[in-house]
Automatic annotation (TrEMBL), chains A, B:
Organism whose genome encodes this protein: Belnapia mucosa
Domain HTH crp-type, chain residue ranges per copy: 158-232
Domain Cyclic nucleotide-binding: 27-99
The keyword DNA-binding appears for this protein: yes
Annotated protein name in UniProt: Crp/Fnr family transcriptional regulator
UniProt entry keywords in alphabetical sequence: DNA-binding, Transcription, Transcription regulation
Stretches the record annotates as Disordered: 240-259
Length: 259, 259
DNA sequence: CGGGCATTTGAGAGTACTCAACCGATGTGG
DNA sequence: CCACATCGGTTGAGTACTCTCAAATGCCCG
Protein backbone atom coordinates (compact mmCIF):
# COMPACT_ATOMS: atom_id res chain seq x y z
CA UNK A 1 0.00 0.00 0.00
CA UNK A 2 1.31 3.36 -0.87
CA UNK A 3 0.07 6.70 -1.99
CA UNK A 4 0.29 6.12 -5.69
CA UNK A 5 -0.84 3.77 -8.38
CA UNK A 6 -3.67 1.44 -7.52
CA UNK A 7 -5.18 3.71 -4.93
CA UNK A 8 -5.79 6.37 -7.51
CA UNK A 9 -8.17 5.10 -10.17
CA UNK A 10 -8.19 6.97 -13.43
CA UNK A 11 -5.52 9.35 -12.28
CA UNK A 12 -4.32 11.67 -14.98
CA UNK A 13 -0.84 12.94 -14.31
CA UNK A 14 -0.09 16.27 -15.87
CA UNK A 15 3.28 17.88 -16.11
CA UNK A 16 3.91 20.39 -13.35
CA UNK A 17 1.81 22.24 -10.88
CA UNK A 18 1.78 25.98 -11.23
CA UNK A 19 -1.06 26.61 -8.84
CA UNK A 20 0.89 25.11 -5.98
CA UNK A 21 3.63 27.68 -6.10
CA UNK A 22 1.19 30.41 -6.90
CA UNK A 23 -1.16 29.79 -4.01
CA UNK A 24 -1.05 32.49 -1.39
CA UNK A 25 -1.70 29.95 1.32
CA UNK A 26 -0.57 26.36 1.61
CA UNK A 27 2.89 25.06 1.74
CA UNK A 28 4.67 27.87 -0.02
CA UNK A 29 3.32 30.73 1.97
CA UNK A 30 6.13 32.85 3.26
CA UNK A 31 8.87 30.96 1.46
CA UNK A 32 11.52 32.64 -0.63
CA UNK A 33 11.16 32.58 -4.37
CA UNK A 34 13.95 30.12 -4.99
CA UNK A 35 12.43 27.68 -2.53
CA UNK A 36 9.04 28.04 -4.11
CA UNK A 37 10.56 27.27 -7.47
CA UNK A 38 12.19 24.16 -6.08
CA UNK A 39 8.87 22.97 -4.69
CA UNK A 40 7.26 23.80 -7.98
CA UNK A 41 9.63 21.45 -9.73
CA UNK A 42 9.02 18.70 -7.21
CA UNK A 43 5.28 18.74 -7.78
CA UNK A 44 2.93 17.01 -10.19
CA UNK A 45 -0.76 17.40 -10.70
CA UNK A 46 -3.39 14.63 -10.56
CA UNK A 47 -7.05 14.50 -11.45
CA UNK A 48 -9.06 12.17 -9.22
CA UNK A 49 -12.74 11.20 -9.11
CA UNK A 50 -15.10 11.70 -6.19
CA UNK A 51 -14.89 9.04 -3.47
CA UNK A 52 -11.40 7.98 -4.36
CA UNK A 53 -8.77 7.91 -1.65
CA UNK A 54 -5.81 10.26 -1.82
CA UNK A 55 -4.19 8.12 0.84
CA UNK A 56 -5.20 5.70 3.57
CA UNK A 57 -4.39 5.55 7.24
CA UNK A 58 -1.28 3.47 7.65
CA UNK A 59 0.04 4.01 4.12
CA UNK A 60 3.64 5.07 3.90
CA UNK A 61 3.63 8.86 3.88
CA UNK A 62 5.63 9.27 0.69
CA UNK A 63 4.03 12.50 -0.40
CA UNK A 64 2.06 15.53 0.68
CA UNK A 65 -0.74 16.96 -1.42
CA UNK A 66 -2.39 20.28 -1.95
CA UNK A 67 -5.94 20.45 -3.14
CA UNK A 68 -6.26 22.55 -6.29
CA UNK A 69 -9.99 22.20 -6.70
CA UNK A 70 -12.69 19.99 -5.24
CA UNK A 71 -13.08 18.99 -1.64
CA UNK A 72 -11.76 16.20 0.57
CA UNK A 73 -12.50 14.74 3.95
CA UNK A 74 -9.98 13.46 6.47
CA UNK A 75 -11.28 10.61 8.54
CA UNK A 76 -10.42 7.77 10.79
CA UNK A 77 -12.26 4.56 10.25
CA UNK A 78 -13.67 3.13 13.47
CA UNK A 79 -13.41 -0.58 14.22
CA UNK A 80 -17.16 -1.07 13.90
CA UNK A 81 -17.31 0.34 10.41
CA UNK A 82 -18.33 3.84 11.30
CA UNK A 83 -16.04 6.77 10.69
CA UNK A 84 -14.95 9.85 12.55
CA UNK A 85 -14.44 12.72 10.18
CA UNK A 86 -11.52 14.83 11.35
CA UNK A 87 -12.13 17.69 8.99
CA UNK A 88 -12.84 18.83 5.46
CA UNK A 89 -10.25 20.33 3.16
CA UNK A 90 -10.71 22.75 0.30
CA UNK A 91 -8.68 24.23 -2.54
CA UNK A 92 -5.40 25.62 -1.29
CA UNK A 93 -5.28 23.32 1.71
CA UNK A 94 -2.37 20.98 2.34
CA UNK A 95 -3.06 17.39 3.27
CA UNK A 96 -0.91 14.45 4.19
CA UNK A 97 2.00 16.14 5.91
CA UNK A 98 3.07 14.40 9.08
CA UNK A 99 6.14 13.87 11.18
CA UNK A 100 5.64 10.10 11.05
CA UNK A 101 6.31 7.72 8.22
CA UNK A 102 2.67 6.65 7.97
CA UNK A 103 -0.43 8.72 7.39
CA UNK A 104 -2.45 9.05 10.57
CA UNK A 105 -5.84 9.08 8.81
CA UNK A 106 -7.61 8.49 5.51
CA UNK A 107 -8.09 11.25 2.98
CA UNK A 108 -11.06 10.75 0.65
CA UNK A 109 -12.42 13.07 -1.97
CA UNK A 110 -16.01 14.16 -1.61
CA UNK A 111 -16.04 15.51 -5.14
CA UNK A 112 -13.95 15.17 -8.26
CA UNK A 113 -10.76 16.99 -7.52
CA UNK A 114 -7.34 18.00 -8.72
CA UNK A 115 -4.52 17.48 -6.29
CA UNK A 116 -0.91 18.50 -6.49
CA UNK A 117 1.54 15.88 -5.30
CA UNK A 118 4.86 16.78 -3.68
CA UNK A 119 7.35 14.04 -2.98
CA UNK A 120 8.04 13.69 0.73
CA UNK A 121 11.72 12.95 0.37
CA UNK A 122 12.15 16.00 -1.80
CA UNK A 123 10.32 18.07 0.76
CA UNK A 124 12.44 16.81 3.63
CA UNK A 125 15.74 17.31 1.90
CA UNK A 126 14.61 20.82 1.08
CA UNK A 127 13.60 21.50 4.65
CA UNK A 128 17.12 20.65 5.75
CA UNK A 129 18.43 23.59 3.75
CA UNK A 130 15.48 25.83 4.23
CA UNK A 131 14.53 26.59 7.82
CA UNK A 132 11.40 28.40 6.69
CA UNK A 133 9.91 25.21 5.35
CA UNK A 134 10.02 23.20 8.54
CA UNK A 135 8.75 26.19 10.42
CA UNK A 136 5.91 26.43 7.92
CA UNK A 137 5.03 22.80 8.50
CA UNK A 138 4.92 23.38 12.23
CA UNK A 139 2.68 26.37 11.63
CA UNK A 140 0.31 24.31 9.51
CA UNK A 141 0.20 21.61 12.14
CA UNK A 142 -0.53 24.21 14.79
CA UNK A 143 -3.36 25.54 12.65
CA UNK A 144 -4.84 22.09 12.35
CA UNK A 145 -4.51 21.69 16.08
CA UNK A 146 -6.33 24.95 16.69
CA UNK A 147 -9.06 23.88 14.29
CA UNK A 148 -9.43 20.55 16.06
CA UNK A 149 -9.73 22.38 19.36
CA UNK A 150 -12.38 24.71 17.98
CA UNK A 151 -14.21 21.64 16.82
CA UNK A 152 -13.90 20.14 20.30
CA UNK A 153 -15.38 23.27 21.74
CA UNK A 154 -18.25 23.13 19.27
CA UNK A 155 -19.00 19.51 20.06
CA UNK A 156 -18.89 20.15 23.78
CA UNK A 157 -20.84 23.37 23.95
CA UNK A 158 -23.10 23.70 20.94
CA UNK A 159 -26.50 22.26 20.12
CA UNK A 160 -27.13 20.43 16.86
CA UNK A 161 -28.29 23.66 15.23
CA UNK A 162 -25.28 25.55 16.50
CA UNK A 163 -22.91 22.93 15.14
CA UNK A 164 -24.50 22.87 11.72
CA UNK A 165 -24.55 26.67 11.59
CA UNK A 166 -20.89 26.80 12.57
CA UNK A 167 -20.15 24.17 9.94
CA UNK A 168 -21.87 26.24 7.25
CA UNK A 169 -19.97 29.34 8.28
CA UNK A 170 -16.76 27.35 8.01
CA UNK A 171 -17.72 26.37 4.46
CA UNK A 172 -18.37 30.03 3.83
CA UNK A 173 -14.89 30.98 4.98
CA UNK A 174 -13.37 28.31 2.77
CA UNK A 175 -15.31 29.67 -0.18
CA UNK A 176 -14.20 33.23 0.52
CA UNK A 177 -10.59 32.19 0.88
CA UNK A 178 -10.87 30.83 -2.62
CA UNK A 179 -12.33 33.98 -4.07
CA UNK A 180 -16.01 33.12 -3.77
CA UNK A 181 -18.72 35.33 -2.36
CA UNK A 182 -19.23 33.01 0.58
CA UNK A 183 -22.95 33.10 -0.05
CA UNK A 184 -23.52 30.51 -2.74
CA UNK A 185 -21.73 27.39 -1.62
CA UNK A 186 -20.98 24.00 -3.02
CA UNK A 187 -22.04 21.31 -0.58
CA UNK A 188 -20.54 18.14 -2.01
CA UNK A 189 -20.55 16.13 1.21
CA UNK A 190 -23.46 13.91 2.23
CA UNK A 191 -25.57 14.30 5.34
CA UNK A 192 -23.74 11.26 6.65
CA UNK A 193 -20.40 13.03 6.22
CA UNK A 194 -21.69 16.10 8.00
CA UNK A 195 -23.11 13.98 10.79
CA UNK A 196 -19.88 12.07 11.23
CA UNK A 197 -18.05 15.37 11.40
CA UNK A 198 -20.38 17.04 13.87
CA UNK A 199 -21.22 14.05 16.01
CA UNK A 200 -24.85 13.91 14.92
CA UNK A 201 -26.99 11.31 13.21
CA UNK A 202 -28.05 11.63 9.61
CA UNK A 203 -31.59 12.28 10.76
CA UNK A 204 -30.58 15.07 13.10
CA UNK A 205 -28.56 16.75 10.37
CA UNK A 206 -31.47 16.45 8.00
CA UNK A 207 -33.87 17.91 10.53
CA UNK A 208 -31.59 20.85 11.23
CA UNK A 209 -31.28 21.58 7.53
CA UNK A 210 -35.05 21.38 7.22
CA UNK A 211 -35.42 23.83 10.09
CA UNK A 212 -32.87 26.20 8.56
CA UNK A 213 -34.75 26.11 5.26
CA UNK A 214 -38.09 26.68 6.97
CA UNK A 215 -36.60 29.56 8.91
CA UNK A 216 -35.33 31.11 5.70
CA UNK A 217 -31.73 30.97 6.87
CA UNK A 218 -30.58 28.90 3.92
CA UNK A 219 -31.90 27.76 0.58
CA UNK A 220 -30.97 24.61 -1.30
CA UNK A 221 -31.73 25.45 -4.92
CA UNK A 222 -30.40 22.07 -6.01
CA UNK A 223 -28.70 19.01 -4.65
CA UNK A 224 -25.18 19.81 -3.53
CA UNK A 225 -25.62 23.54 -3.57
CA UNK A 226 -26.53 25.85 -0.73
CA UNK A 227 -27.28 29.52 -0.43
CA UNK A 228 -26.78 31.37 2.86
CA UNK A 229 -29.77 33.67 3.04
CA UNK A 230 -29.50 35.01 6.57
CA UNK A 231 -25.93 35.39 7.69
CA UNK A 232 -26.66 37.20 10.97
CA UNK A 233 -29.15 34.50 11.83
CA UNK A 234 -26.62 31.76 11.17
CA UNK A 235 -23.98 33.56 13.16
CA UNK A 236 -26.38 33.95 16.04
CA UNK A 237 -27.09 30.23 15.94
CA UNK A 238 -23.43 29.34 15.73
CA UNK A 239 -22.73 31.88 18.45
CA UNK A 240 -19.21 32.35 19.68
CA UNK A 241 -20.41 29.80 22.20
CA UNK A 242 -23.48 27.62 22.03
CA UNK A 243 -26.07 29.97 23.46
CA UNK A 244 -28.40 32.17 21.40
CA UNK A 245 -32.04 31.38 20.81
CA UNK A 246 -32.61 28.37 18.54
CA UNK A 247 -35.18 28.30 15.79
CA UNK A 248 -37.80 27.02 18.17
CA UNK A 249 -38.07 26.68 21.91
CA UNK A 250 -35.84 28.03 24.65
CA UNK A 251 -32.86 26.02 23.49
CA UNK A 252 -29.84 24.84 25.32
CA UNK A 253 -27.84 27.49 27.15
CA UNK A 254 -25.11 24.89 27.12
CA UNK A 255 -23.65 23.86 30.40
CA UNK A 256 -21.95 26.29 32.66
CA UNK A 257 -19.36 25.57 35.26
CA UNK A 258 -16.39 27.92 35.35
CA UNK A 259 -16.56 31.26 37.09
CA UNK B 1 2.05 40.29 30.05
CA UNK B 2 4.62 37.66 29.60
CA UNK B 3 5.42 34.25 30.87
CA UNK B 4 7.47 35.27 33.86
CA UNK B 5 7.31 37.40 36.95
CA UNK B 6 3.88 38.47 38.11
CA UNK B 7 2.13 35.52 36.58
CA UNK B 8 4.09 33.18 38.75
CA UNK B 9 3.36 33.83 42.39
CA UNK B 10 5.86 32.50 44.87
CA UNK B 11 8.02 31.03 42.14
CA UNK B 12 11.24 29.56 43.40
CA UNK B 13 13.89 29.52 40.73
CA UNK B 14 16.50 26.84 41.18
CA UNK B 15 19.68 26.52 39.23
CA UNK B 16 19.41 24.12 36.33
CA UNK B 17 17.10 21.35 35.37
CA UNK B 18 18.57 17.91 35.26
CA UNK B 19 15.33 16.04 34.89
CA UNK B 20 14.61 17.79 31.61
CA UNK B 21 17.59 16.38 29.87
CA UNK B 22 17.17 13.07 31.59
CA UNK B 23 13.56 12.54 30.65
CA UNK B 24 13.04 9.76 28.17
CA UNK B 25 10.13 11.60 26.62
CA UNK B 26 9.58 15.30 26.13
CA UNK B 27 11.65 17.70 24.19
CA UNK B 28 14.94 15.90 24.30
CA UNK B 29 13.77 12.53 23.15
CA UNK B 30 15.88 11.39 20.24
CA UNK B 31 18.29 14.28 20.34
CA UNK B 32 22.04 13.89 20.34
CA UNK B 33 23.89 14.23 23.60
CA UNK B 34 25.49 17.56 22.80
CA UNK B 35 22.12 19.02 21.94
CA UNK B 36 20.60 17.68 25.09
CA UNK B 37 23.39 19.30 27.07
CA UNK B 38 22.73 22.62 25.36
CA UNK B 39 19.05 22.43 26.26
CA UNK B 40 20.03 21.44 29.75
CA UNK B 41 21.98 24.66 30.11
CA UNK B 42 19.15 26.73 28.71
CA UNK B 43 16.67 25.45 31.28
CA UNK B 44 15.71 26.53 34.78
CA UNK B 45 13.37 24.97 37.25
CA UNK B 46 10.37 26.64 38.95
CA UNK B 47 8.11 25.61 41.77
CA UNK B 48 4.54 26.86 41.35
CA UNK B 49 1.39 26.52 43.49
CA UNK B 50 -1.87 24.94 42.37
CA UNK B 51 -4.17 27.18 40.35
CA UNK B 52 -1.41 29.45 39.20
CA UNK B 53 -1.01 30.12 35.51
CA UNK B 54 2.10 28.95 33.70
CA UNK B 55 1.06 31.23 30.83
CA UNK B 56 -2.06 32.86 29.45
CA UNK B 57 -3.57 32.86 26.02
CA UNK B 58 -2.19 35.85 24.15
CA UNK B 59 0.99 36.15 26.22
CA UNK B 60 4.17 36.40 24.23
CA UNK B 61 5.45 32.86 23.82
CA UNK B 62 8.91 33.50 25.22
CA UNK B 63 9.43 30.05 26.67
CA UNK B 64 8.37 26.45 26.57
CA UNK B 65 7.94 24.39 29.72
CA UNK B 66 8.13 20.78 30.73
CA UNK B 67 6.22 19.54 33.72
CA UNK B 68 8.49 17.83 36.20
CA UNK B 69 5.80 16.92 38.69
CA UNK B 70 2.20 17.89 39.29
CA UNK B 71 -0.50 18.33 36.68
CA UNK B 72 -1.71 21.14 34.46
CA UNK B 73 -4.69 21.89 32.28
CA UNK B 74 -4.65 23.66 28.94
CA UNK B 75 -7.78 25.65 28.32
CA UNK B 76 -9.38 28.36 26.31
CA UNK B 77 -11.55 30.81 28.17
CA UNK B 78 -14.91 31.29 26.48
CA UNK B 79 -16.41 34.76 26.11
CA UNK B 80 -19.20 33.97 28.57
CA UNK B 81 -16.86 32.98 31.34
CA UNK B 82 -16.96 29.27 30.78
CA UNK B 83 -13.90 27.39 29.68
CA UNK B 84 -13.08 24.68 27.20
CA UNK B 85 -10.36 22.43 28.52
CA UNK B 86 -8.13 21.33 25.70
CA UNK B 87 -6.26 18.72 27.63
CA UNK B 88 -4.40 17.77 30.77
CA UNK B 89 -0.65 17.51 31.01
CA UNK B 90 1.45 15.39 33.33
CA UNK B 91 5.08 15.02 34.34
CA UNK B 92 7.30 14.70 31.30
CA UNK B 93 4.90 16.56 29.04
CA UNK B 94 5.95 19.66 27.14
CA UNK B 95 3.67 22.70 27.16
CA UNK B 96 3.76 26.07 25.52
CA UNK B 97 5.56 25.29 22.27
CA UNK B 98 3.95 26.91 19.28
CA UNK B 99 4.87 28.24 15.86
CA UNK B 100 3.29 31.61 16.68
CA UNK B 101 4.61 34.37 18.88
CA UNK B 102 1.65 34.16 21.28
CA UNK B 103 0.38 31.24 23.29
CA UNK B 104 -2.84 29.89 21.81
CA UNK B 105 -4.36 28.92 25.17
CA UNK B 106 -4.02 29.22 28.93
CA UNK B 107 -2.01 26.74 30.96
CA UNK B 108 -3.07 26.45 34.59
CA UNK B 109 -1.81 24.10 37.24
CA UNK B 110 -4.34 21.83 38.87
CA UNK B 111 -1.90 20.92 41.61
CA UNK B 112 1.34 22.28 43.00
CA UNK B 113 3.92 21.60 40.38
CA UNK B 114 7.51 21.95 39.31
CA UNK B 115 8.06 23.14 35.79
CA UNK B 116 11.22 23.45 33.77
CA UNK B 117 11.49 26.59 31.71
CA UNK B 118 13.36 26.70 28.40
CA UNK B 119 13.89 30.03 26.70
CA UNK B 120 12.19 30.20 23.34
CA UNK B 121 14.90 32.20 21.61
CA UNK B 122 17.49 29.72 22.79
CA UNK B 123 15.37 26.89 21.51
CA UNK B 124 14.88 28.46 18.10
CA UNK B 125 18.51 29.32 17.58
CA UNK B 126 19.32 25.74 18.50
CA UNK B 127 16.78 24.39 16.08
CA UNK B 128 18.51 26.24 13.28
CA UNK B 129 21.62 24.17 13.87
CA UNK B 130 19.87 21.01 14.88
CA UNK B 131 17.38 19.58 12.40
CA UNK B 132 16.32 16.96 14.92
CA UNK B 133 14.87 19.57 17.21
CA UNK B 134 12.44 21.13 14.78
CA UNK B 135 11.44 17.69 13.65
CA UNK B 136 10.85 16.79 17.25
CA UNK B 137 8.61 19.81 17.69
CA UNK B 138 6.58 18.83 14.65
CA UNK B 139 6.28 15.34 16.09
CA UNK B 140 5.01 16.69 19.39
CA UNK B 141 2.51 18.89 17.61
CA UNK B 142 1.33 15.93 15.56
CA UNK B 143 0.89 13.95 18.77
CA UNK B 144 -1.24 16.69 20.24
CA UNK B 145 -3.24 16.76 17.06
CA UNK B 146 -3.83 13.04 17.23
CA UNK B 147 -4.89 13.38 20.85
CA UNK B 148 -7.32 16.17 19.99
CA UNK B 149 -8.77 13.98 17.28
CA UNK B 150 -9.17 11.06 19.64
CA UNK B 151 -10.94 13.42 21.97
CA UNK B 152 -13.19 14.53 19.12
CA UNK B 153 -14.05 10.94 18.46
CA UNK B 154 -14.83 10.39 22.11
CA UNK B 155 -17.09 13.42 22.29
CA UNK B 156 -18.92 12.45 19.14
CA UNK B 157 -19.37 8.77 19.75
CA UNK B 158 -19.23 8.03 23.44
CA UNK B 159 -21.81 8.32 26.17
CA UNK B 160 -21.06 10.17 29.41
CA UNK B 161 -19.91 6.94 31.04
CA UNK B 162 -17.74 6.09 28.08
CA UNK B 163 -16.07 9.46 28.14
CA UNK B 164 -15.34 9.34 31.84
CA UNK B 165 -14.03 5.79 31.55
CA UNK B 166 -11.79 6.82 28.65
CA UNK B 167 -10.62 9.80 30.67
CA UNK B 168 -9.70 7.58 33.60
CA UNK B 169 -7.80 5.22 31.34
CA UNK B 170 -5.92 8.20 29.96
CA UNK B 171 -4.95 9.15 33.52
CA UNK B 172 -3.85 5.58 33.99
CA UNK B 173 -1.56 5.76 30.99
CA UNK B 174 -0.07 9.02 32.22
CA UNK B 175 0.61 7.41 35.57
CA UNK B 176 2.23 4.39 33.96
CA UNK B 177 4.42 6.55 31.75
CA UNK B 178 5.70 8.11 34.92
CA UNK B 179 6.50 4.83 36.57
CA UNK B 180 3.29 4.34 38.51
CA UNK B 181 1.21 1.19 38.65
CA UNK B 182 -1.63 2.87 36.81
CA UNK B 183 -4.01 1.59 39.43
CA UNK B 184 -3.79 4.11 42.22
CA UNK B 185 -4.16 7.52 40.65
CA UNK B 186 -3.95 11.09 41.75
CA UNK B 187 -7.03 12.99 40.65
CA UNK B 188 -6.17 16.61 41.32
CA UNK B 189 -8.70 18.14 38.93
CA UNK B 190 -12.20 19.09 40.01
CA UNK B 191 -15.44 17.70 38.60
CA UNK B 192 -15.83 21.02 36.83
CA UNK B 193 -12.48 20.54 35.10
CA UNK B 194 -13.41 17.05 34.05
CA UNK B 195 -16.80 18.24 32.81
CA UNK B 196 -15.26 21.07 30.83
CA UNK B 197 -12.87 18.59 29.28
CA UNK B 198 -15.45 15.96 28.41
CA UNK B 199 -18.31 18.24 27.47
CA UNK B 200 -20.45 17.24 30.44
CA UNK B 201 -21.98 19.14 33.34
CA UNK B 202 -20.62 18.87 36.85
CA UNK B 203 -23.71 16.94 37.84
CA UNK B 204 -23.33 14.42 35.05
CA UNK B 205 -19.69 13.84 35.93
CA UNK B 206 -20.62 13.38 39.56
CA UNK B 207 -23.38 10.93 38.69
CA UNK B 208 -21.07 8.89 36.48
CA UNK B 209 -18.48 8.69 39.25
CA UNK B 210 -21.19 7.64 41.66
CA UNK B 211 -22.28 4.93 39.25
CA UNK B 212 -18.69 3.74 38.78
CA UNK B 213 -18.26 3.55 42.55
CA UNK B 214 -21.55 1.70 43.00
CA UNK B 215 -20.56 -0.70 40.24
CA UNK B 216 -17.25 -1.36 41.98
CA UNK B 217 -15.26 -0.16 38.98
CA UNK B 218 -13.44 2.50 40.97
CA UNK B 219 -12.90 3.48 44.56
CA UNK B 220 -12.20 6.94 45.93
CA UNK B 221 -10.45 6.28 49.23
CA UNK B 222 -9.99 10.02 49.73
CA UNK B 223 -10.55 13.29 47.97
CA UNK B 224 -8.25 13.63 44.99
CA UNK B 225 -7.30 9.99 44.89
CA UNK B 226 -8.80 7.23 42.82
CA UNK B 227 -8.30 3.52 42.58
CA UNK B 228 -9.15 1.60 39.42
CA UNK B 229 -10.73 -1.59 40.72
CA UNK B 230 -12.08 -3.13 37.52
CA UNK B 231 -9.88 -2.40 34.54
CA UNK B 232 -11.68 -4.68 32.08
CA UNK B 233 -14.95 -3.10 33.10
CA UNK B 234 -13.61 0.39 32.49
CA UNK B 235 -12.16 -0.64 29.17
CA UNK B 236 -15.47 -2.12 28.15
CA UNK B 237 -17.21 1.12 29.03
CA UNK B 238 -14.64 3.22 27.25
CA UNK B 239 -14.77 0.79 24.35
CA UNK B 240 -12.66 1.47 21.32
CA UNK B 241 -15.85 3.15 20.18
CA UNK B 242 -18.81 4.15 22.28
CA UNK B 243 -20.78 0.94 22.31
CA UNK B 244 -20.65 -1.70 25.06
CA UNK B 245 -23.33 -2.12 27.71
CA UNK B 246 -23.49 0.74 30.23
CA UNK B 247 -23.88 0.23 33.94
CA UNK B 248 -27.64 0.32 33.62
CA UNK B 249 -30.08 0.13 30.77
CA UNK B 250 -29.51 -0.70 27.13
CA UNK B 251 -27.36 2.36 26.58
CA UNK B 252 -26.44 4.24 23.50
CA UNK B 253 -25.00 2.22 20.63
CA UNK B 254 -23.84 5.58 19.36
CA UNK B 255 -25.01 6.66 16.03
CA UNK B 256 -24.24 4.71 12.95
CA UNK B 257 -24.00 6.01 9.43
CA UNK B 258 -21.02 4.76 7.47
CA UNK B 259 -21.00 1.35 5.85
C1' DC C 1 -38.69 1.03 -15.48
C1' DG C 2 -36.58 -1.01 -11.33
C1' DG C 3 -32.92 -0.95 -7.81
C1' DG C 4 -30.18 1.46 -4.88
C1' DC C 5 -28.88 5.45 -2.46
C1' DA C 6 -29.47 9.84 -0.16
C1' DT C 7 -32.71 12.35 2.15
C1' DT C 8 -36.87 13.44 4.60
C1' DT C 9 -40.35 12.97 8.05
C1' DG C 10 -42.81 10.90 12.02
C1' DA C 11 -43.34 8.73 16.63
C1' DG C 12 -41.36 7.24 20.72
C1' DA C 13 -37.54 6.48 23.95
C1' DG C 14 -33.50 7.66 26.51
C1' DT C 15 -29.52 10.32 27.88
C1' DA C 16 -27.86 14.37 29.62
C1' DC C 17 -29.18 18.96 31.08
C1' DT C 18 -31.55 22.33 34.38
C1' DC C 19 -32.93 23.71 38.66
C1' DA C 20 -32.66 23.02 43.39
C1' DA C 21 -31.46 21.32 47.83
C1' DC C 22 -28.16 19.18 50.77
C1' DC C 23 -23.64 17.46 52.65
C1' DG C 24 -18.85 17.66 54.17
C1' DA C 25 -14.49 19.89 54.38
C1' DT C 26 -11.99 24.03 54.71
C1' DG C 27 -11.11 28.63 56.24
C1' DT C 28 -12.14 33.06 58.39
C1' DG C 29 -13.60 36.22 61.89
C1' DG C 30 -15.72 37.31 66.14
C1' DC D 1 -13.70 27.81 70.07
C1' DC D 2 -17.54 28.16 67.38
C1' DA D 3 -20.63 30.53 63.97
C1' DC D 4 -20.63 31.18 59.39
C1' DA D 5 -19.36 31.57 54.57
C1' DT D 6 -17.32 29.18 50.76
C1' DC D 7 -16.25 25.59 47.82
C1' DG D 8 -16.48 21.13 45.83
C1' DG D 9 -19.30 17.42 45.51
C1' DT D 10 -23.71 14.67 45.70
C1' DT D 11 -28.45 13.64 44.88
C1' DG D 12 -33.34 14.26 43.30
C1' DA D 13 -37.14 15.65 40.11
C1' DG D 14 -38.46 17.27 35.84
C1' DT D 15 -37.36 18.80 31.12
C1' DA D 16 -35.67 18.76 26.55
C1' DC D 17 -32.69 17.57 23.09
C1' DT D 18 -31.04 14.06 20.22
C1' DC D 19 -31.13 9.25 19.16
C1' DT D 20 -33.57 5.02 17.47
C1' DC D 21 -36.66 2.79 14.70
C1' DA D 22 -39.64 2.98 10.83
C1' DA D 23 -41.50 4.27 6.53
C1' DA D 24 -41.97 7.24 2.59
C1' DT D 25 -40.07 10.23 -1.02
C1' DG D 26 -37.05 11.69 -4.60
C1' DC D 27 -33.07 11.07 -7.47
C1' DC D 28 -29.56 8.84 -10.25
C1' DC D 29 -28.09 5.08 -12.99
C1' DG D 30 -28.21 0.94 -15.37
Amino acid sequence: MDASGLMMPRAAVTAACGACAGASRGLCHGLEEADQAALFNAASSLRLPARSAVFREGDRANAVFTLKDGAAKLLRALPDGRQQIIGFRFPGDLIGYTARDRYPCDAELVSDATVCRVDRGRLESMSRHCAGLSHRLLELCAEDLAAAQDQLNAMAQKSAEGRVAAFLLMLREADRRNGGTGLDLSLPMTRADIGDYLGLTIESVSRVFAALRRGGLVKEPQRGRLRLADLPGLEALAGSDGAAAPLSGPGRPAHRSAA
